[in-house]
Amino acid sequence: MKATRGRCLEGLEVYRVGGAVRDARLGWPTVDTDWVVVGATPEEMQRRGFRPVGRDFPVFLHPDTHEEYALARTERKSGHGYTGFEVHASPDVTLEEDLARRDLTINAMAETPEGELVDPYGGLKDLHARQLRHVSPAFIEDPLRVLRTARFLARYARLGFTIAEETRALMVELAASGELDHLVAERVWTETEKALGEADPAVYFRTLHECNALAVLMPELVEEAAALSEALTRLARLPDDLPEEECPRWRWARLVEHLDDARQATLAERLRLPRRYRDLGRQAALTRQLRHRSEPEADDVKAWLDGIDAWRREERVPPLLALLAVDAPALAERLERAWQAVSQVEPRELVAEGFRGGELGRELARRRRAILLQDFSGA
User: Fold this and answer.
1) Can you tell me which residues bind Mg(2+) (predicted)?
2) Could you say which of 24, 27, 135, 369 is the most buried, measured as most Cβ atoms within 10 Å of its Cβ?
3) What is the C-alpha separation between 114 and 228, in angstroms, rounded?
4) Which residues participate in the annotated binding site for CTP?
């Protein structure tokens, strides 16, 4: 932390806050460090070389370390949703007042640059007790906190963390209040995508379901209780050797693979899903449909290859075969063998033989089907 102390900080009352303080005491690596400045004005920060970057409240980047320094502030509910707050940032806001607006006690601890802990709301006690507990009744003013609490549980459940009963009760109350309806899609998806990258992403969706928030935010997932339970189990069953950065996308695909095209499309539109998540969800659904056929035939396999656009996007085939191997290894092996053979049929070879236009397409389909018939019988 000494690297953050320089001439630009001399005379400022500065505290490290949030996740860096929490995770250091859990023995977890800390990547980003956020700071709160008490008793300063935006003009003073800029005079010291800090660059303003905050849109909704005064946040500045340190001129050397580029860490974030926010002026101490309070918030007052003035509308609906995550953005329905009036922010008050001034030199008279105390550190305790700033920490009081935070969601959970374990996120409401601060630390001086020398490492002295400031913990007015019992965050360290809850950290030792493995409890996720709200700081104040103001928790209920921000519907995003339902998602954030569920996401933190997905991160720390393996360490034995649970949600305090009184906090869980507030989450249920928030879900019933209608406030979740005012969350913008982008904020819901940001929290959900982060949760998909946590240690136990199924815990996130299960927690939202238990407090009735999932029915509001992603109703397609709760239409059938048994289907949801099965989907949450699938999240841990991914293709081997996936890069870590790809795991969230594949977990989402596993979550929604049982949904038909219409429900996937509705859910994707509601959450404003990125295209790559939409596409993989649909491809996983097509793969699931093939897997669930009692005895796939050549036309079924060709329809699957057509559906995932394998002829133009051949890079899609190996990871989907790896996904299939998770649940149906014998079928995946047959499909891989058939794909290796059928992918050798090149349109340019047929062009060289004189095929053109529609005749070329028909002959290409005929030859591919003939090869598939060698491994998959069918009329």
Assistant:
1) 32, 34
2) 135
3) 48
4) 19, 22, 102, 148, 151
